[in-house]
Amino acid sequence: MTAAVAAARKGIGTRLAHGILLLAFVGLLLFVTRRVPEVHGGLWTITAIGFLLLAGTLTSELIEPLGLPHLTGYLIAGIASGPHVLRLVDEQTVKSLSPVNMLALSLIALAGGAELDLATIRKGTKSLVWATIVQCVLVLALMSGLFFAAKPLIPFTRSLGPGALLGVALLWGALAVTRSPSATLGILSQTRAEGPLANFTLAFVMASDVAVVVLVATAMAIARPLIDPAATFTFDAFVTLGHSLFGSVALGTTLGLFIATYLKLVNRQMLVVLLILGFGASTVLDYLQFDALLTFMVAGFIVRNMSNQGHKFLSYIGQTGTVVYVVFFATAGADLDVPLLRGLWPVALILAGARSLVTWGGSLVSTRLANDPPVLRRWSWSGLVSQAGLALGLSTIVAREFPGIGTPFRALAVATVAVNEMLGPVLFKLALDRAGETRRREAVSLASIRPPPP
Amino acid sequence: MNSILLLMGLLVLAYLGSFLVAGRGVPGVGLPSGIEYVALGFVIGPQALDLVGTDILASFEPVVYVALGWLAFAVGLDFGFSGDKRVSTASLVLGTLSALTTGAAVAAAAWFAMVRLHVAATPTDRILLAGGVGAACSETTRHAVRWVVDRHIADGPLAERLDEVAHTDDFFPLLAVAALFALEPTRHVIVRMPLRDWPAITIGLGLLLGGGAALLVRSELRLDDTWGVLFGVTLIAIGTSARLGLSTLTATFFVGIAVSLLSRHRRELRAMVSPTERPVLLPALLLAGARIDLHMSPALAWIAAAAIGARLASKVVVGWMLAVSSRSARSAGPFVGLSLLSSGGLAVCIGLVFALRFPGFVGDTVLTIAVLAATVGEFIGPARLRRALRAAGEIREPGDGRATAGGVAA
């Protein structure tokens, strides 16, 4: 039985059973966490992964009839079990999940690269170029302007002079350009969507990773003397950035060639190999300070387009599917600072809403300039609303580089990203449904598994 | 060696292990007990080359718990089945009796050795140590018969019976571990209840979580969702049982049994899980080897000798039981029971879980004796099995038209 048929057959009874089971698991963990103190150190991290996996999977099943994407379910499960609501997963545990998150991100990036088909990208080059230019320029300019104008609403900017405020606004604008490759891939993985909207969004979001990194570095170089009059404009950041980008592409290419060769010559136990590569390469990348997302994306792209092993590779990557996304997004949910969001939600909502509007306007302009088909003119903006790890990572860098405004800036960024993180996947899933691109490919169901030969 | 290097090493080992999935990838390659990986662990561990220090081993404890839990889950999922065939009731009874006889004999021998040697330990520690050694020495590794059958292309009722017994003798030792863990509940557990209730809670927890998993898997989840459910439930079982001071092995074993009994997808789930068993086992064996301390007590050698001697004697008795119930076993000679002497994965896992739960004299002794018993079993078990199968006419000689495939390492 295919997954689509199975999903259709899932009645209210099944979902009720899932809901009861979820409550039972929550009850068990509540009892254990409240009555028995933790003495095993890292062992509760393992339990947390297990619970997030299960709760994420069940919550996503429960919200499916509402038309909401699974990612939203994972996020809800993470928020609910996180340190600010049920406290089944505490802050320390969330922190200790970072290696697992890194592994998940590397697999997501590999999948993203491997989904990028060079022929499809070539066909849509005009759309991609126009979209990249318009979205970058428009979002950067308008969001910087809005941030500048919203000074009375943002407490930490009130004491800044016009120059410093302009610098901070520029940083905010650059941050607003970031998208979420993981959310895009998560939605595409769940819906198995195929079509112009899916192809465009995937290619744009993955390519924009490079554009955003360059843009943020540029914004930081310009903003530095504006925020701190003692500082001067320097090209040092660009040297570091160039080193990082070049190194990431080189390492990604090498990794991609290795994977392609392995698939051709050995083609066994790819999941264990991916684990080894994920952990090993992440450690090396961390040491070299290369961009992990870019490196793994390039590796996936090379396997897909520079060898004939792409489909094999995609099938292996697909097997890690839900587990990777649940862990990644449920952890993101658990990491969400709910009290902070509670305090900053009006400003965050205004900034997130404005960003969505600007993105929508930008897509109207770019699709017209590129003469895109109607489906892109109508929906291409929807996949560009999500923000997640990349934006948070860049906000951390900004906070570190500009200690004067760092903490409140990051807090506002976290709150705004939280809104986009919740809203973006819903919009993208809705658009894919409306564009008729979902469920064209069937997922592998349990019933299709055959026992290995004796 | 830092923890990242060790992690990479373990992953590489898991990769190699995946090629040695018994009976398939490379048939009959590797020893049935996997004891060579324990030896490798010992060599790189603090007692030999000290490439892996005590602190790194401690930091890997959660990983070890996960590996042990997953293996016990796989054993539970496979319990009562040999391949896709359900084992006969006679084999189930015989397997349980075999484990009970061996475990009791070994535990008694270890107890008397401690008494005779005047080992300075509390009565509870003595019970834990004797019981732990008994539990760890009572099983026969499920891969042993398959290993010999693959190498010698054996086929017949004795091979089948021994295979089934090896598949059904895991119940008693894992139950014993739950009971032993209850003797010393962790001091931080606020919930107070009689000792006899703790094993029941362990089993209940496993069955409840397994039942939940079976219910979830029933609804035709996507394959990757199914992995999520299985991983999720197993990890929750591991974490909650460890936090409550219960036996993680027993809890996850019963998760596996419940899933196997209650899910209509048992075959498919086994097909998913069984290939993961070897890749998870080998790193666990390596880490177990690294924890072995042969110099921890002067009494160790004597306790080990008594336990292993009792194990040999009890397996002979098990052979007589086997002979009563099976004609082909009678034709294999009076020492057919020694064919079941190979222990390995589960035995070392039980030893390791004791070492984690009762660090020091008790845990380390149980682990070391489990490894020594597996090593002795490795030298005797496969050779006796080959001899028994040949005597029963289930291995054809080269002249009979089917050639034997090489010698046995033992």
Question: Can you give a write-up of this model?
Answer:
The complex is a heterodimer of chains A (454) and B (410). Chain A is an all-alpha fold. Chain A has helices spanning 3-9, 12-35, 43-63, 70-81, 91-96, 98-115, 118-123, 125-149, 162-176, 181-191, 196-227, 236-265, 270-288, 292-305, 310-335, 338-370, 374-379, 389-401, 403-434. The radius of gyration of chain A is 22 Å and the shape is globular. In chain A, 52% of the residues are buried. The model of chain A is unreliable at 1-6 (pLDDT under 50). In chain B, β1 and β2 form a beta hairpin. Chain B is built from 17 helices and 2 strands. Chain B is an all-alpha fold and 410 residues long. Mean pLDDT of chain B is 85; it is low at 22-26 and 401-410. Helices cover 70% and strands 1% of the residues of chain B. Chain B has a two-stranded antiparallel ribbon. In chain B, α6 (123-137) packs parallel to α17. Chains A and B meet through α1, α2, α3, α13 and α15 of A and α1, α4, α10, α11 and α13 of B.
Mass-distribution shape of chain B: globular
Biggest interface pair, counts: A-B, 66 and 61 residues
Question: For the terminal residues of chain B, how far apart are their CA atoms?
Answer: 33 Å
- Tell me the distance between the termini of chain A: 25 Å
| Structure annotation, total helices of chain A | 19
- DSSP helix fraction of chain B: over 70%
Alpha-beta classification of chain A: mainly alpha
What oligomeric arrangement do these chains adopt? Answer: heterodimer
Mean pLDDT of chain B, as a whole number? 85
% residues in beta strands of chain A? under 5%
Main beta sheet of chain B, described? 2 strands, antiparallel
Shape of chain A: globular
What is the count of helical runs of chain B?
A: 17
Please count the beta strands of chain A (DSSP E, at least 2 residues each): 0
Largest beta-sheet details of chain A: none
- How many strands in all of chain B? 2
Radius of gyration of chain B over alpha carbons? 20 Å
Strand content of chain B: under 5%
